[in-house]
Amino acid sequence: MPDDLLNSFKTGPDDKGRFGQFGGRFVSETLMPLILELEAQYEFAKTDDSFWAEMDFLWKHYVGRPSPMYFAERLTDRLGGAKVYFKRDELNHTGAHKINNVLGQIILARRMGKTRIIAETGAGQHGVATATVCAKFGLKCVVYMGATDVERQAPNVFRMRLLGAEVIPVTSGRGTLKDAMNDALRDWVTNVRDTFYCIGTVAGPHPYPAMVRDFQSIIGKEAREQMLEAEGRLPDTIIAAIGGGSNAMGLFYPFLDDTDVAIIGVEAGGKGVNAKMEHCASLSGGRPGVLHGNRTYLLQDEDGQILEGHSISAGLDYPGIGPEHAWLHDIGRAQYVSITDTEALAAFQLSCETEGIIPALEPSHALAHVAKIAPDMPRDHIICMNMCGRGDKDIFTVAKHLGFDMKV
Ligand SMILES: *Cc1c(COP(=O)(O)O)cnc(C)c1O
Question: What is the mean pLDDT of the chain?
Answer without folding.
Answer: 95
